[in-house]
Amino acid sequence: MDSRKIFFEKIYKYYQDASMDKIDANYLIELSKRISDYYYEQYSRFRKQYPKSSKRYSEFKFEDLNHPETVELIINFFKEKLGDKYFAFSKVFLNMTDSQLKSFEINRELYHNK
User: Fold this and answer.
1) Residue 22 DSSP one-character state
2) What is the reported pTM?
């Protein structure tokens, strides 16, 4: 399985390119670490839980960054760091429009308040 360091490097590079230097480097590093730690733990657990799928969880897959949990991690990170200013930074980091991010947040609330 990819090392934790490789997870971080892949995720950092992905978001560095995606944010086009519009996000402070310290936020980029901290958030990339948070996301890479999350996925490293998930992959480690899934390799044990689903032995027949160990190949799937042997190296980080970028499509996992499109998972709603990743969006949650990013939004929560910026809320924690920036309070009310989270929306603008989340939008840039996620490459979403205002309406896309608002729609995600509405759907998230509906899901959690079933």
Assistant:
1) -
2) 0.89
Domain ranges of the chain: 4-112
Residues in the chain: 114
Provide Rg for the chain, Cα atoms: 15
The conformation of residue 67, written as its DSSP 8-state character, comes to S
Q: Which token pair is 106?
A: 């509405």
Q: DSSP string of the chain?
A: ---HHHHHHHHHHHHHHHHTT-S-HHHHHHHHHHHHHHHHHHHHHHHHH-GGGTTTTSS--GGGGGSHHHHHHHHHHHHHHHGGGHHHHHHHHHT--HHHHHHHHHHHHHHHT-
pLDDT digits (tens, 9 = 90+) for 27-77: 999 999 999 999 999 999 999 999 888 888 999 999 999 999 999 999 999
